[in-house]
Write a structure and sequence with these properties.
2 copies of one chain form a homodimer. The first copy, chain A, has 12 helices and 14 strands. With 327 residues, chain A is an alpha/beta fold. Chain A folds into 3 domains: 43 residues, no CATH class; 115 residues, 3-Layer(aba) Sandwich (Rossmann fold); 134 residues, 3-Layer(aba) Sandwich (Rossmann fold), CATH 3.40.50. The first copy, chain A, is elongated. The mean pLDDT of chain A is 88. The structure holds a DNA duplex (30 and 30 nucleotides).
Chain lengths: 327, 327
DNA sequence: TCTTGGATATGAAACTTTTCATATCATCGG
DNA sequence: CCGATGATATGAAAAGTTTCATATCCAAGA
């Protein structure tokens, strides 16, 4: 921090106006034009900039929002972080980023850190159910945390149905839903619900594999596919993976087993990350509207009128086909 | 921000001690044990937490560092952001993230925003040469900004040499270096220098393609390869791409042209992003030590003794081979 | 001309912390 | 037993802003 930075007092003196007038100018409050001009030129001359800490102390508003994410090297989370950051900056706010590695303690700690006075609001995507503070505006992504905490998510249920619909439209007749990790009661769980619901409605066989994330994931998947392999042919021809990253993984396992995508099996992922869109993979995906999610979170958080904030906002997803030309 | 949060005064009253004593307790200054205990229990009872804004105002230290990046949905930048965030949190700091979209104005604006008083220090990776403020600790990544601004980077030159060495070791005899965008005078330019230097030393032919990033990139690449294509065979058998993302792109163009990787052409990228490591691509990469870079930046920024800060820190890279089994 | 009203500039108070000069206390050497 | 010493608690001042009650000004209406 600069040592002897010019203060409002300096600007006021330079401009020959009162302290309060300078304050008004920098807060966009009505001030006579001649005054405004004098203040602005004086401020420019002195190189004055508002001290956010003094402002935060006095006014209680810091123009800072905290974003809490499990990590940011997952492509979807990175996208989210970027869009939240941009949306905030457009509105004159800055973003404090916390990464938790999905550990419950870290998540609680992060919420604690922003709890009292380190941010005007919090946007969080947590893997664990935690108690959101009632005393700071809070928006949750992908998980309902409580009656007064709005939750923003993709329409995961519709996304799951869409995935099934598209696989069927592609001619698949025996579907599977694959996910990793035990249910953590988030909105994302509804992907599977939607998928299975459509399968039931169309009376299409659908098997589900929920994988523990604690041990030997890859081996479990290999066994799963070997169980479904008969005479070198898979008795599954359409797979819906709960995330794109999982889709990439599955795709590689299938390749190792000598199965071709999309000729032998069709794969649909979920997230809409760039890599999967690459035609080299031939996987389709259900695209989450990352930018829309980010902007919705920011708008909800910064809403002046906090009287009727919705409990859950589901945003529409879309289907993006994979590449169609074989390498 | 919480409305009527307990203050130090409340804690002091509750504990029956002076204000200054409470302050000392929260700043780790020597205090009698009985006093410390009383303060701590009182603080816990009241749910008191230090108000960072009052502290920032009075003490001038905010325990906040700004990270300025062109974007965060590039896998390498995401990795960097994550490691910087973690390193800062471990040291009791928090991270303010700014994304600039690489625009010169946005970069200058971001530096301006943190200039006076919004952060204890700045870590920046900028695409444009800009004037770093002298009044706030500043560390630059991948670009030397001035005599008093330390720059942290991978050893790009050695990385370029390593790439050439490995391609030759794989049996390649006619190499090419591909990069996108005009030189922007950053450390990353040295990748090409190192690569070409080793080619010269070994007397291996090496052509370089620098691509303007303003128009028809893909078409330019296609033409480049078509110019080098004779009777369906490429007169290049080893390609070094300046970044992994470019490598992925090139790989796809080659596939479209009917060329196989790695049978017909070997590709080495640079960055060490996860996706390229995936065996589905058969591209090798020069891995940048993202975590080490992040930690070095943070340590340099937070160094108490600012008397002998190095001007440039080059960190060692390593070679990571691509997948070896064909799908 | 005098009053009234609206608009806007003024300056002191408040926000919560850290810092620093002063006050207090116990200990120790003489 | 007394004065000096070192350690540590105390409380006022200061940091730069916003807010609010008050003061000022100018124009309009009587």
């Amino acid at each position: 921090m600069k040592k002897n930075a010019p203060t409002m007092k300096d600007v006021a003196q330079e401009a020959g106006v009162a302290l309060g007038t300078v304050s008004k100018v920098f807060n966009g409050i009505a001030v006579g034009d001649s005054y405004r001009l004098r203040v602005e030129t004086a401020a420019k001359k002195l190189g004055y900039e508002v001290n956010q800490y003094a402002r935060g102390l006095r006014a209680g508003t810091t123009y800072t929002v905290a974003l809490i994410l499990p990590n940011v090297d997952h492509p979807f989370f990175a996208l989210l972080a970027q869009h939240v950051c941009t949306a905030l900056m457009q509105r004159g706010y800055r973003m404090l980023l916390y990464v938790t590695a999905a550990s419950p303690e870290a998540e609680r700690e992060c919420v604690g850190m922003v709890r009292q006075n380190k941010a005007d609001g919090v946007i969080a995507l947590t893997y664990n159910q935690l108690e959101a503070p009632a005393d700071v505006p809070f928006v949750s992504i992908d998980r309902c945390l409580g009656p007064n905490i709005p939750c923003v998510a993709s329409d995961n249920y519709a996304g799951g149905r869409l995935a099934a619909e598209r696989l069927l439209a592609l001619g698949c007749t025996r579907l599977a839903f694959l996910r990793i990790g035990s249910s953590h009661l988030s909105e994302t769980d509804k992907r599977g619900d939607g998928f299975e619901s459509l399968c039931r409605a169309r009376q299409v066989p659908c098997c589900t594999m929920r994988l523990n994330d604690d041990a030997g994931e890859e081996a479990q998947f290999r066994r799963f596919f070997q169980d479904h392999l008969q005479d070198g042919r898979l008795d599954i021809d359409g797979i819906f993976c709960a995330t794109d990253l999982l889709a990439l993984w599955i795709r590689r396992i299938l390749a190792d087993l000598g199965l071709r995508v999309p000729e032998d099996v069709q794969i649909v992922g979920f997230d809409g990350i760039q890599q999967l869109g690459s035609s080299a993979y031939y996987c389709s995906t259900i695209v989450q509207p990352a930018q829309k999610i980010a902007e919705t979170c920011v708008d909800l958080l910064l809403a002046k009128d906090r009287s009727n904030i919705p409990a859950l906002v589901c945003l529409p997803v879309r289907y993006a086909p994979g590449g169609t030309t074989r390498e």
